[in-house]
Fold this sequence. Notes:
Layout: H1 11-46, H2 54-66, H3 74-103, E1 110-117, E2 120-125, E3 133-137, E4 159-162, E5 166-173, E6 178-182, E7 187-191, E8 197-202, E9 207-213, E10 225-231, H4 233-243
Parallel strand pairs: 1-5, 4-10
Antiparallel strand pairs: 1-2, 2-3, 5-8, 6-7, 6-9, 9-10
Amino acid sequence: MFKTFQSPNSPIMEGIIDLHNYIFFYLLIVFVFVLCMFYNIITIFYLNQKFPLFLTHVFFRNFCYEIRNVVHLPELETVWTILPSFILILIAVPSFTLLYAMDEVIDPSLTIKAIGNQWFWAYEYSDRDYYNADFTSYMIPASDLKKGGHRLLEVDNPVVLPVHTHIRILVAANDVLHSWAVPSLGLKVDAVPGRLNQLSVFIKKQGVFYGQCSELCGVNHGFMPITIRSVPVDSHYDWWDNLL
């Protein structure tokens, strides 16, 4: 089965997929129109054929013959300036809406910090409702994987987050540029030394979600995966007690 995206598990990722499909609709319209025009230009002007594409025969054939020697047509130039501008406005409105939704942080119930290192991730839980705790997350080598494990994606200490909870994620780095990305949750932000970048997520389903560092950060760049396990809120508290 052909799939372009991972299954969305957050409202932001659902919005990204919807925006992609929305823009792709206009892309197809423009592509078909331009393709038809090229076909007619080639057949009428260069090959001197009288059989342009059937779908554009009625609309463009006579028009093309009439403007064969025209070098300036203000009406046509006005149309091909206004129409693309209108399409861009139709695309820009939902794009900016999604962009601002991604930057909005709604009174988070939990805050964690993800810190990139060469070459592993470290996590800190330091919210006011919790005791401070931190742990590192290293990739499990292929030789140590359990049956059914995902090569280059499994870690020894996954991040455990509660579902149906507004969560803030602060991302930084200790050494060089990294990038913390989990595609199925619509999360991706650079980890910059000396700077905190912010993400927010609302996980809708229980499950395990995988990501990887998405910024070339050194020789082991491909060996610092991200694993998030979403659990019910009660189970998250149990995990927290065991962690302490």
